[in-house]
Amino acid sequence: KLFFTDYGNAAKVERCDMDGMNRTWIVDSKIEQPTALALDLINKYVYWLDIYLETVEVVDYQGRRRQTITKGRQVRHLCGLAVFENYLYTINSDNLSILRINRYNGTDVQDLARLDNAIEIRVYQKRTQAAVRSHACEVDPYGMPGGCSHICLLSSSYKARTCRCRTGFILGSDGRSCK
């Protein structure tokens, strides 16, 4: 799945399949300007910052069990969001510090370090990576991902895929080759 935020005409947090199909709003009320998003892949939670409402909130992948983690003026200066173990990590754009926030109750906020310039944060750790299983976009014997001549996108499951073409090409009637 692909998760993303939108704060155009109607602010929301959404998800869809990797090929863009099955687009679903998971949060579309009491939300104004969601600017950062982080996923807890193990427990299947979506965290986001709303800098207009000055909140950090969480829902499950279906948009249920919504909770506010923290609220207040300090949130308007946050950018980027990552989750690891019991904490959320973010950047305070006022003083370019990395903050660590308890993700269960919003307490235990700590300044970890200062940076010269940052607007995004990521946690790279083996436990945050999902196990890879065989999938529909694996390279075939001819070196083509999922049998697609250009781009292979996973669809509704790891067993399904959609082929797409690079700009300037059109997908052929076989649904795999680009012309």
Description:
The protein has two domains: 124 residues, TolB, C-terminal domain (Neuraminidase, 6 Propeller), CATH 2.120.10; 47 residues, Laminin. It is an all-beta fold and 179 residues long. The protein is built from no helices and 13 strands. The mean pLDDT is 88. The protein has a four-stranded antiparallel sheet, with no helix packed on it. It has a four-stranded antiparallel sheet with strand order 8-9-10-11, with no helix packed on it. It starts with a strand and ends in a 15-residue tail after the last strand. The chain is elongated and about 55 Å long. Helices cover 0% and strands 39% of the residues.
In terms of DSSP E residues, the strand content is 35-45%
Uncertain spans: none
CATH topology of the largest domain: Neuraminidase
Q: What is the CATH superfamily label of the largest domain?
A: TolB, C-terminal domain
Name of the CATH architecture of the largest domain: 6 Propeller
Give the count of helical stretches: 0
So what's the CATH class of the largest domain?
Answer: Mainly Beta
From the alpha-carbon coordinates, what is the Rg to the nearest angstrom? 19 Å
C-alpha termini separation: 28 Å
Q: Give the averaged pLDDT, no decimals.
A: 88
Q: Give helix and strand order, one letter per element, not per position.
A: EEEEEEEEEEEEE
Shape: elongated
Q: Summarize the biggest pleated sheet.
A: 4 strands, antiparallel
Class inferred from helices and paired strands? mainly beta
Query: In total, how many beta strands?
Result: 13
**Helicity level:** under 10%
GO cellular component, one term: plasma membrane
GO molecular function: Wnt receptor activity; Wnt-protein binding
Pfam families: FXa_inhibition, Ldl_recept_b
LDL-receptor class B repeats: 1-43
